[in-house]
Amino acid sequence: MASGLIYLAIAGMWVSYFLPRWIHDREEFSGKSVERYKSALKVVASKSPGGLPETGIMHTDLDFVAKNAQKILRRRIIFTLLTISLVTTSVGGVMNKLQFIYTLVPISGIALYIVQVRRETISERLQLRRVKQLQRETNGVSTTNLVDVVTPKATTDHWIPLSERELTGVVILPKGSAEERRT
Length: 183
Known about the structure:
Helix 1 (about 1-30) packs antiparallel against helix 3 (about 65-95). The protein has a domain at about 65-140. Helix content is about 65%, strand content about 0%. It has helices at about 1-30, 30-45, 65-95, 105-140, 145-150, 180. The protein contains 6 helices and no strands.
């Protein structure tokens, strides 16, 4: 009985790993029309005023919607598999075929999955924030005042590094700056 559960858990893990990959590969191989569409858009963009003629670089992400749809589909499949395994182990516990302790496996899987999705979401938001910040910096919006950077600072203090000083023994430095000591 216990070995059957182990084999069932192993088979479930293999399915949860290979099913999203199989769906991804299937969608990727049938995406030849998308590639033709992207290449046609690159040609159009290279002839437009905003595009670069030699490279065909465009300033839009064509695959953003497709990537998001695929990511949502993958998340739904994994969450559905985890929920089905939770329901199955719960029903097995109610029917006295399994102990209720086995429901902790899908519960922990769901908890780990939620943590992983949360980490991915935070990472995506951080990446988007970095891209927006980079765009702001490259568009000429600067947060630093260039007058403060360019003007030289008038200092009367001359600092000699400790390694270049002729020191013998312990030197006690007075508290405060040199301006305060002179007055």
